[in-house]
Amino acid sequence: MAKIHTRRRALTLIGTAGGIALAGCMGGSDDGSEMGGNESGEEMSDDEMADNGSDETMANVRVAHLSPDAPNVDVYVDGDTVLEDVPYRDVSDYLELAPGTYTVMITAAGDPDAVVFEDDLEITDGAFTIAALGELSETNQLFAPTVLEDDRSDPGDNARVRLVHASPDAPAVDVTVGDGETVLFDDVAFGEAATTEVPGGDYTLEVRPATETNDGDVVATVDTAPETGSVYTAFAVGYLEPDMAPADAPFDLEVVTDA
């Protein structure tokens, strides 16, 4: 049985005294200065901006609603509505923001007083997904919006695929192809992500409870056709036993294109 090397990390909020930092391992300016001005508060010319190297790289942020028992939600940034009536399993387009600190609030759709998340997010340049994981009922997992750093760089001659385990009642999983002959992801638990690269082509992803030999019974299959040079995220969502769960949301893989 062949195994493809994967990179795995736990998905956790990166806490700071003032809120949640999306900085990860990436650099960012801490001087608090605004683009386009100098120390005297005067506007800078194009030449001055070029000389000072102050051109900013924008941040890209999206929201993924992965909490199966949560209602549709609205998303606010600094008090302004940026996404409305976002349903379960929806992954928004990227929103472009200048690096800085923003107050992000998530509420039940149409009810700004029903706040499920509110905090300050310090955003650096790069790409990030704010993913709502867990359950409001906390039947299996605590509800916790989580920040993922998205690697949208060019994978070259391969396709890059990331697995995010967001199924509250599912154990750790293996993902294989070819009737188990090739292991793409090994022993990925709830709240973890793993990344691998594969040649472009047609695949049937087989999701199995994790075992030492990666041969657990297949609980779901998904056909996908990643393209060379593209980047994808496969979110494992829903319940393995929806009849016993607080919401009728069967287990599935939600595959989205990152780049």
UniProtKB/TrEMBL annotation:
Composition bias type Acidic residues, residue spans: 40-53
Domain of life: Archaea
InterPro entries for this protein: DUF4397
Residue spans of biased composition, Gly residues class: 28-39
Domain DUF4397 residue range list: 59-176
Organism, scientific name: Natrinema limicola JCM 13563
Disordered: annotated span: 28-53
A Pfam family hit: DUF4397
Full protein name: DUF4397 domain-containing protein
